[in-house]
Amino acid sequence: MLLLAAAFIVAIVLLLYMVSPLISPKPLKLPGAHVVVTGGSSGIGKCIAIECYKQGAFITLIARDENKLLQTKKEIEKYSVNDKQVVLCISVDVSKDYEQVENVLKQAQEKLGPVDLLVNCAGTSVTGKFEDIEVNSFERLMAVNYLGSVYPSRAVISTMKERRMGRIVFVSSQAGQLGLFGYTAYSPTKFALRGLAEALQMEVKPYNIYVTVAYPPDTDTPGFAEESKTKPLETKLISETSSVCQAEQVARVIVKDAIQGNFNSSVGSDGYMLSILTSGMSPVTSITEGLQQVVCMGIFRIVGLFYLGSFDSIVRRCMMQREKSENTDKTE
Ligand SMILES: NC(=O)c1ccc[n+]([C@@H]2O[C@H](COP(=O)([O-])OP(=O)(O)OC[C@H]3O[C@@H](n4cnc5c(N)ncnc54)[C@H](OP(=O)(O)O)[C@@H]3O)[C@@H](O)[C@H]2O)c1
């Protein structure tokens, strides 16, 4: 009887594996495709642009600083695989004026054709204790990280729907999967991207458009170096519990997942665990992925609780040390 049940389960799993490719999206062909990368002049965005260019794509880079854009264009062009490839630079703030963003993307599409892959990577961060963060920083981060992803996506979606093809990537963060000390202004902007992505994916899936949400871990970039200058001690100590990734590695994973049309994109074993833990009602792009979530969720929750316990103890230790040194100062 037990043997029969085991054979039945194995047969179901095998069947699911066999039909899995039938429900998975067809991979995007990058050679000749038009890829737009916001935040493409630095860090993860720059490495995503390089990765796509190496695979034969035409690139539009979007950022504000023109000099940085031109410098990056030169850097990317070293990786050309054919002499037809173009790197177009557009200087615009993606968070300010929707019509301006729509116009520049229209111009880019006139030059390089309709957008096949849009990577929303422009973003910024502010860390600090909730009460210490300037009120306007909450508004600015929501504008850049959230609206700065809404505007370019809104500007290209109609053409993608007409063509019944396209890929949109939202670069969130592991801080968009769990809230950590010091990230009260940043985390909500990255959580918001997940909500946008889930709702949008349900709308556009019948049009053969696939949305990816990437959750990079701490990554060695100019933006990360800048953020690290003002991180509270608690945030630093919690960050140090995992290692810092290279932007090239993160970019490779994001590009691979965008090509495959995977909804979740994570890096490393921590990233894998967090994606399973926070999968909730998010879409799956293969039965294998769904099975992994069903099987691993419980055990990962136990591991997650240990992590949460150790983060809480870091925060408590820092508070006690601070209070102790304040008391010593007072008595001196
Ligand atoms: N590095 C990490 O540890 C890490 C971890 C998780 C998630 N992320 C996310 O990954 C993305 C890239 O991060 P990064 O560390 O690579 O950042 P980065 O090195 O600071 O690069 C940010 C890019 O975004 C552009 N940008 C910023 N604000 C913009 C705006 N309003 N309009 C247009 N472009 C704008 C910047 O160019 P200009 O300044 O010239 O406009 C630059 O090209 C961000 O969304 C970040 O939140 C990063």
UniProtKB/TrEMBL annotation:
Localization, UniProt: Endoplasmic reticulum
Record bears the keyword Iron: no
InterPro entries: KDSR-like, NAD(P)-bd_dom_sf, SDR_fam
GO cellular component: endoplasmic reticulum membrane
GO BP terms: 3-keto-sphinganine metabolic process; sphingolipid biosynthetic process
Superkingdom classification of source: Eukaryota
This protein's record includes keyword Ligase: no
Keywords: Coiled coil, Endoplasmic reticulum, Lipid metabolism, NADP, Oxidoreductase, Sphingolipid metabolism
Any one GO molecular function term: 3-dehydrosphinganine reductase activity
Family: Belongs to the short-chain dehydrogenases/reductases (SDR) family.
Protein task: Catalyzes the reduction of 3'-oxosphinganine (3-ketodihydrosphingosine/KDS) to sphinganine (dihydrosphingosine/DHS), the second step of de novo sphingolipid biosynthesis.
The protein's name: 3-dehydrosphinganine reductase
Organism: Gallus gallus (Chicken)
